[in-house]
Amino acid sequence: MNPTTQYLRRLSPKDFAAFGVNDLAYVKPTETEGKPAYAIHAADGTILTVVERQDVAFATVRQHDMEPLSLQ
Questions:
Q1: Cα-atom radius of gyration of the chain, to the nearest Å?
Q2: Other CB atoms closer than 10 Å to residue 18's CB: what's the count?
Q3: Between β-strands 67-70 and 35-42, what pairing exists: parallel, antiparallel or unpaired?
Q4: What is the tens place of the pLDDT at every residue in 9-58?
Q5: Phi-psi region of 45 (alpha: psi -120 to 50; beta: other; left: phi over 0)
Q6: CB 10 within 8 A of CB 21
């Protein structure tokens, strides 16, 4: 087993959730007041904000120097 694999297997769920916390944000379809919307989540799952359109969600994430990832 290589050293990276060994390291990853020793991580706690909390440590693993912290990966990408400053680099990644997840965009997930949702609903707000019965209307389609997109929630932006931090890498640890915390909801940061909800916007009306996916393109706005991606632009918002990029404006904060993060990479958006779609969860569909």
A1: 15
A2: 14
A3: unpaired
A4: 787 777 766 666 678 899 999 999 999 999 999 887 889 999 999 999 99
A5: left
A6: no
Written in H, E and C, the secondary structure of 10-32 is CCCHHHHHCCCCCCEEEEEEEEE
Long-range contact list for 52-56, CB < 8 A, 24+ apart?
A: 54/27, 54/29
Residues whose CB falls within 8 Å of the CB of residue 70, separated by 6 or more in sequence, listed in order: 26, 27, 28, 54
Overall residue count recorded for the chain in this entry: 72
Q: How far apart are CA 62 and CA 28, in angstroms?
A: 15
**Token match 């904000």: residue?**
49
Classify burial at 40, counting beta carbons within 10 Å of its beta carbon; exposed 0-12, middle 13-18, buried 19 or more.
buried
Place of tokens 């996916």: 54
pTM of the model: 0.72
